[in-house]
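User: What would this chain look like folded?
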Amino acid sequence: MSNPSIPAASGFNYSPLPQEGCTIRLIKLVPSVNHAPICIQLFERELKSAGYFEALSYTWGNNILNEEVLCGDQIIHVSSMADIFLMF
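Assistant: Here's the prediction, encoded as structure tokens.
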């Protein structure tokens, strides 16, 4: 049985994580110049082989998704707090 893509609150679609193991989603910031939009790459890794990463809860602050982040060829809407964090 296949799992359908799950729409995120922002309209961004992603597939369910595998049920076996302990897979997590990580983002990698893509370097940008001047005031270009924030760009990220989204990928999956097994937690035990994910290497060093910094965790960020995207649920703090208000839940108004009023900022845009580019992920591949799709736009992800994020909160102002997440946008500020990703800039630094």
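Confidence is low (pLDDT under 50) at residues 1-9. If you want, I can go into more detail on any region.
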